[in-house]
Amino acid sequence: MRSLVWVKDAGAEYAEVDLSGGLAATGVAVGADPVPYRLEYSLRTAAGDHVTEALTVRSSGAGWWRVLDLRRGPDGKWVCEADQEGALGGPPPGGDTGALNDALDCDLGLSPLTNTMPVLRHDLLTTPGSVEFVMAWVRVPHLSVIRHEQRYTHISPGVVRYESDGFRSELVFDRDGLVTDYPGLARLATTGG
Asked: Could you tell me which InterPro entries the record lists for this protein (predicted)?
């Protein structure tokens, strides 16, 4: 079990991560954009291939809250349950899970943690190559879910380029496959365990 703190441009994230049998994590984040929010999550992947099994998220702010329970079944089909209360502009939580059925991973917006799964599955920390992915991307703090295409490319040992929708950044990972530097998003401040 490792405890990690990422400092972000507009907030921070704390996570407890266990990589001993797949990836299991719980975390909390605070942010200021587009509105001040608090976010709590738990994530579980399958052992060996790090394919997402479940992501549960709760976000809240002044006068509102949202919850999302997103799961990928053994048949590859995604299901989600969502709820909300109070006023927060933007899309409602949840989404069309039928568009996600070729996705293996979730991507929790603004969290460096969910970059770990595809990088470990394809050994991109050490193996040259480029891989394209479809993700079940969760917008934060709205918790809406959409299909999102991304590309990861091995640049050098421990450095992987992330690209999506015209955005690109070279992410630095530690030996366990956890992000230590995500330029423009977060930097690992401390780690324990």
From this structure: Glycolipid-bd_prot_put
Q: Which domain holds residue 11?
A: 2-83+91-192
Instruction: State the Cα–Cα distance between residues 175 and 159, nearest whole angstrom.
Output: 11
Question: What is the DSSP code string of 1-67?
Answer: -EEEEEEETTEEEEEEEE-TTS-EEEEEEEE-SSS-EEEEEEEEE-TTT--EEEEEEEEEETTEEEE
How high is the pLDDT of residue 192?
65
Domain total in the chain: 1
What is the spatial distance between Cα 145 and Cα 66, in angstroms, rounded to a whole number? Answer: 13
> Which positions ≥6 away from 18 have C-beta within 8 Å?
1, 2, 24, 25
pTM of the model: 0.95
Question: Which uninterrupted H or E stretch holds 148?
Answer: strand 145-156
Q: Are 171 and 182 in contact (CB under 8 A)?
A: yes
Q: CA–CA separation, 106 vs 117, rounded Å?
A: 9
User: Could you give the percent of the chain with pLDDT greater than 90?
Assistant: 94
The SS3 assignment for 115 reads: helix
Tokens of 57: 């998220």
| Model pLDDT for residues 166-185, shown as the tens digit of each residue | 999 999 999 999 999 999 99
8 Å CB contact between 41 and 110: no
